[in-house]
Design goal:
By secondary structure, the chain is α+β, with helices and mostly antiparallel strands. Helix content is 26%, strand content 37%.
Length: 100
Amino acid sequence: MTEPVKVDIPHKLGREAARGRIAGGVGKLTEMFPGGGHLEQRWDGDTLHFTLSAMGQTIASRLEVFDDRVHAEVDLPPMLALFAGKIRDKLATKATALLK
């Protein structure tokens, strides 16, 4: 298993507003992965757990919402680990735009 992709995205929205923006935009995550895919999601308190199927692989991820930041962790299967840098960059860019 490879190391998860980890990104902290700062925001000034407060926890509830950030959570609302994430809930409204999580469906766009499929655009970040080559081949897109199917998304399943569930909230556990202020943590969004989601799985995305892409390129025949399943990616498990978490977004933990704090008052001033969102901590994202994406567990990539070995086949997709080659894309870790690009996925980290896209996640940081798109999540930052979502939280502005």
